[in-house]
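User: Predict the complex with arginine.
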Amino acid sequence: MSKLWGGRFTKETNKIVEKETASIGFDYKLAEQDIEGSLAHVYMLESQGILTKHEAAQIEQGLFTVQKKLRDGQLSFSYEHEDIHMNIEKHLIDEIGAVGGKLHTGRSRNDQVATDMHLYLLNKTEQIMTKLADVQQAIYDLSGEHTDTILPGYTHLQRAQPISFAHHMLAYFWMFERDYGRLNDSLKRISWSPLGAGALAGTTFPIDREDTARRLGFETVYPNSMDAVSDRDFIVEFMSAASLIMTHISRLSEEFVIWMSEEFSFIELDDSFCTGSSIMPQKKNPDVPELLRARTGRVNGNLVGLLTVLKGLPLAYNKDMQEDKEGMFDTVHTVETALDMLAPMIASMTVNRETMQRAVHTDYSNATDIADYLVNKGLPFREAHEVIGKIVLYGLNENKYLLDLTLEEFQAFHTSFEDDIFAVLEPRSVMNARTSEGGTSETAVKEQLKQAGRTLEKK
Ligand code: ARG
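Assistant: Here is the predicted structure with arginine placed in the model:
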């Protein structure tokens, strides 16, 4: 089959080379963007007088026909035509004849592919932002029901201080808020148009880059044609943001896995998000959070893969850059599906209030508050810490929690203890005493929830 670039060649391409250098196996995903980019280009060629009205009209019609076939699933792609750009151009020429060959005037596949990638990622970034907001909404809704649900808070995975379940979940709300912000920031850089940069040096035709940029919804154009065709920073940026999204998802997933273990039993994920065991009939496995945790690996891998492709690449376009695609598509798919599963999984999970509540009565997580109690009675914090450490040790030896001790037992360690100590000891008072801004008391968490609500309203 004759190649669109076959003129200077005397031999057929080696078969394995043809297959391996082709990108159509994956860049067919850019078909819509490729046609969109071509339409903007042809409108501009006409308004600049580079193509006649008639030629442009033929090409537009041809592109619409190709677009319709694509949407009807009737467009076939072949390795012989290497990539999506040449496959579409070939279809166009098949539809309207030789005039279709005028579409590529003043353009190169190098600015064309960069344009397609920008358009694709612009769209995907916006979609992923919406999906992030859906997850935030699910967290917000669940938190609203649980400002007064108390559970142990951990550091080092050791019981630390009792906290509100809403407080714990809202921590993830803010992580996803930063992810949202990162994607939002990246939009202004994705919105640079490379179209019109040509192969690397610009073009001899009197094109109007601002015009195509505007038609495609870009904010501005790359000021340097060499940078325009060889920049893949916007993909790296997207992949970095995606890595952080997956990192956050993996941390939350890990909490779900732990919380769903029989040892904790703090939550139960809905049956529709779990699977069973082929041998152990009693099992209900949290496969979804496990997979989400693991898929962080491929997203991180894709990021490092692209950074490695770009490292040391000379200007301008190099075939190496074709390797930017599969990782990007995979990252987009992984993040999209992760968020799609996460929102309904959160919305449908059962929170075992009673178990969590019981847990905070069987630990020493009120110890800090007894130290603070002595500080309020005038002791330096270090001294108070020492006294309470001794009381905890005593409790451990006697098999008693701090809640079980009598006033006499407390007073044996320090004479400042009085009857009011018992109100301080209650896990709920411990939680609600943390009224500082961003703290875990019910009042502070309700304030935080309001702030989260305002954030969602702005989206
Ligand atoms: N398929 C190529 C890619 O994905 C398109 C650009 C090819 N340009 C070229 N001069 N070979 O990067």
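Residues 23, 27, 83, 109-110, 113, 317, 321-322 surround arginine (CB under 6 Å).
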